[in-house]
Amino acid sequence: MCTGCARAASTWGRRALAREIDAAGIDVVHCTLQIALLVGWLGVRLSRRRPPLVVAVHTTINRHAKAEWLDRLLYQWLMRRCARIVFVCDAQRAHWEAKYPFMAARC
Q: What is the pTM of this model?
């Protein structure tokens, strides 16, 4: 199920995602990019099934300070809840593991 970020982040979107997770018997929620992880995490938290989260990270270096702060204050904590973290290349994985050592156990 793919959704636009703004619509999915709304209360209706989160509840719709949770209902879809339960109705379709979703076993794993795969999120691509950090904003999708936020939406996926909210959907999983509202579902009855509580499937594991997997995130694919496509960003190595943040383009602005706001994105860096979001990583530090929000997304690293959501990534700690993921069963797996997928990176697009080994250099990116090494960058993120140096930034957040806990990631090494989830790659």
A: 0.80
